[in-house]
Amino acid sequence: MLSANAAELVRATLPAVGAELETITARFYDTMFADHPELLDGLFNRGNQRSGEQRKALAGAVAAFAVALLDNPDERPDALLARIAHKHAAVGVTDDQYVIVHKYLIAAIADVLGEAVTPEVASAWDEVYWLMAGALIAMEARIYAEAGARDGATWRPWRVVERREETADAVSLVLSPIGEEPAPPARPGQYVSVRVTMPDGVRQLRQYTLSGHDADGRRRITVKRERRAGVPEGEVSSLLHATVKEGDTLTLSAPFGDVALEDGDEPLVLVSAGIGCTPIAAMLQHLADAGDKRRVLVLHADRSEAHHALRADMERLTGELPAGERIFWYESAAGGSAAGEGARTGLMSLDGVEIPEGAVVYMCGSVEFMRAARAQLIEAGVAPRDIHYEVFGPDLWLGAA
């Protein structure tokens, strides 16, 4: 892994780099996009750039990778890298783009830290970058190969054959592949990128979990239109929600994502909040189709029953499992019957909930929700290594173990 000299210099400068990481990543993105504005057309999420989330995610990834190299010099942090590699594959990152990123990231470190970045220090951080980049390039090559693609060419057209209004702000789009080629395989819990052209002509990509499928090869995505103070936000989700109709064509990537349901005999706990129910619905369909007999406990939290997308599917599929059980929590009973069977009022609380011994957990929702749920699950006896999570958007939880 890191050479001895590089490790010594990285260890000595990591506090200074860590303290300035957000400034470094801001400088990196600003200078790179100034020279390469084409990267914002069909690759980088400009909404996450405006919010700063992508910059925080990059800073967290670089710091986490450097710390992992120093703490465990004989091991590569593959769990961290796999999540990033799948995100990169979903947007079609190619090898040559790592060269561009290297140029501007190393320059940003030198620019922000000034004289502290001697040629030796720059060389040490250069080594960190190429260890990370080299591992990601190799992982992404394998992921592309598994998807039957090369160099990010995973895109194909799909026709919208059905539009289902799930809630006032969530719509499901049932999609059928166009052309003779079979659709690439998908594992329950994986996501696809949807590429659309915005009104200003710039292409944008967003990831949506495959929330269901049928025997004819059709697949479903469920899109939620986010609102704050009654005003829609999320330019791609809002566009899809407002304009897509049956008969339209969408461009989708192959399925990606390292958090997918694994076969096994251990009991399962499937935890979600809000639109985080989408991978859970896909997992439940897979389990129901397979006639899985192990215990499956489904835990979901939402604002109200009326806001709970895919609720009917989750109820039906859990009911089809021989040992399925569900508990829903709704903050408000408005718009539904929160006092009904299998539903509770308030925030999710595992007090009095029997978590199966030896359970494997899959969860999806906001980072804040998952932190709270993870803490409760660990307190209930679930091993941290058995808790798997998916994050929508940039992963700001890279330090979780």
TrEMBL record:
Q: Where is the Globin domain?
A: 1-141
Q: Coiled coil: which residue ranges?
A: none
Q: Which GO terms describe its molecular function?
A: FAD binding; heme binding; metal ion binding; nitric oxide dioxygenase NAD(P)H activity; oxygen binding; oxygen carrier activity
Keywords in alphabetical order = Dioxygenase, Heme, Iron, Metal-binding, NAD, Oxidoreductase, Oxygen transport, Transport
The segment(s) forming the FAD-binding FR-type domain are 153-262
According to the lineage, what is the superkingdom? Bacteria
What is stated as this protein's family in its record? Answer: In the C-terminal section; belongs to the flavoprotein pyridine nucleotide cytochrome reductase family. Belongs to the globin family.
What is the protein name stated in its UniProt record? nitric oxide dioxygenase
Which species? Nonomuraea rubra
